[in-house]
């Protein structure tokens, strides 16, 4: 998704948190290998002491590099616009407001993966026993953020949920935990598909 629905203000050019980036890169490669991040879809973030590091806009997760992360340190919502404060040189992922809101709502979350797992989406949500958003909202919008905050209030311990008509979000204490969980649920969906064929 290339439509940017917020304004970025660059506070400085140097993001901090190299150790976190390495773990995020590992989870991205794994996501790509498992077919969970086709094309330039998906984004990843990891919490840092002053905010979070997130993949930049329009990046292919499978080949992402250290310099394709920026650090988000704040978000401001006025009646007219959304403003995101960033350390780095490139635009952050279009789903930055979503990541920001999840970190605010859930202090236990240390990493977030947003993936396009069509497999999971094609299996009935009740089979996987996974919460999903009630309405479909456009990527990168505040309406989507509100849907997710509503879902998190209904399911305060949810670590994984489905964005209706769009994709999935897997969270964890670490990026490694988030990708392991995403792969596990992908496999469960796969089992359902195979049963269905029999
Ligand atoms: Zn998406």
From TrEMBL:
GO CC annotation: cytosol
Family annotation (Pfam families): Aldolase_II (PF00596)
The keyword Metal-binding is annotated on this UniProt entry: yes
PANTHER family to which the protein is assigned, alphabetical: 3-OXO-TETRONATE 4-PHOSPHATE DECARBOXYLASE-RELATED (PTHR22789:SF0), FUCULOSE PHOSPHATE ALDOLASE (PTHR22789)
UniProt cross-references to InterPro entries, sorted A to Z: Aldolase_class_II_sugar_metab, Aldolase_II/adducin_N, Aldolase_II/adducin_N_sf
GO biological process, alphabetically ordered: pentose catabolic process
Class II aldolase/adducin N-terminal domain mapped to chain residues: 22-193
Keyword annotations of the record: Lyase, Metal-binding
Protein name as it appears in the record: Class II aldolase/adducin N-terminal domain-containing protein
GO MF: aldehyde-lyase activity; metal ion binding
SUPFAM superfamilies cross-referenced by the UniProt entry: AraD/HMP-PK domain-like
């Amino acid at each position: 998704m290339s439509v940017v629905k917020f304004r970025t203000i660059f506070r400085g050019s140097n993001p901090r948190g190299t150790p976190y980036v390495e773990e995020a890169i590992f989870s991205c490669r794994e996501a790509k290998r498992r077919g969970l991040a086709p094309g330039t879809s998906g984004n990843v973030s990891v919490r840092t002491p002053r905010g979070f590091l997130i993949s930049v806009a329009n990046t292919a997760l499978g080949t992402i590099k250290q310099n394709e992360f920026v650090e988000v340190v704040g978000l401001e919502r006025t009646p007219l616009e959304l403003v995101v404060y960033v350390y780095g040189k490139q635009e952050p992922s279009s789903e930055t407001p979503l990541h920001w809101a999840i970190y605010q709502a859930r202090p236990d979350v240390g990493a977030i993966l947003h993936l396009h797992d069509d497999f999971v989406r094609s299996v009935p949500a009740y089979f996987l026993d996974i919460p999903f958003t009630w309405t479909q909202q456009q990527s990168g919008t505040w309406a989507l953020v509100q849907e997710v905050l509503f879902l998190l209030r209904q399911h305060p311990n949810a670590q994984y949920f489905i964005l209706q008509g769009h994709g999935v979000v897997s969270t964890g204490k670490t990026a490694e935990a988030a990708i392991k969980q995403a792969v596990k649920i992908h496999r469960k969906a796969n089992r359902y598909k195979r049963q269905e064929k029999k």
